């Protein structure tokens, strides 16, 4: 009967893909006039219509209050115009308690606006945060390893 329980738990855990947690990620950069970026989840879906706030680090009058706030668009992009200088911390609060923080990267202002370099940086950032199949298989391997260790210890205890 115990074997049936373990098999049932194993089968249910393998088919519960909708319950896999996802993280909220943030890409932000500052060019002197505005903070731009994109918010997305670990499955690369955009964090649409999500509130974004920017805080000035170091020289702000009140570090508790944001200097500018806004919302992401339907594709997760945002633009926050700023009038002060300095490093900025960008915070995004998503639904269900998701939250991401990042210090905006300072980049040189380009005459063309959004250049190929900025797009490349965003693509690299997204690839770094993506969940790959080997990550999932590695996690399943850890679970099986812990289960095997538990079974080994239990078998030793029953032998004695």
UniProtKB/TrEMBL annotation:
The chain crosses the membrane at residues 131-153. Keywords: Membrane, Signal, Transmembrane, Transmembrane helix. Residues 1-21 form the signal peptide. This is Putative cytoplasmic membrane protein CbiL. It comes from Actinobacillus pleuropneumoniae serotype 5b (strain L20). The gene is cbiL.
């Amino acid at each position: 009967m115990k074997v049936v329980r373990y098999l049932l738990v194993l089968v249910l855990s393998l088919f519960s893909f909708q319950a896999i947690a996802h993280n909220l990620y943030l890409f932000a950069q500052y060019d002197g006039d505005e903070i731009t970026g994109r918010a997305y989840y670990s499955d690369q879906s955009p964090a649409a219509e999500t509130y974004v706030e920017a805080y000035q680090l170091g020289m702000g009058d009140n570090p508790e209050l944001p200097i500018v706030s806004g919302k992401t668009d339907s594709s997760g992009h945002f633009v926050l115009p700023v009038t002060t200088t300095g490093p900025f911390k960008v915070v995004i609060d998503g639904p269900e308690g998701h939250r991401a923080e990042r210090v905006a990267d300072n980049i040189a202002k380009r005459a063309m606006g959004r250049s190929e370099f900025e797009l490349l940086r965003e693509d690299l950032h997204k690839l770094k945060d993506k969940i790959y199949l080997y990550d999932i298989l590695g996690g399943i391997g850890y679970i099986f390893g812990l289960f095997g260790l538990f079974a080994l210890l239990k078998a030793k205890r029953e032998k004695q």
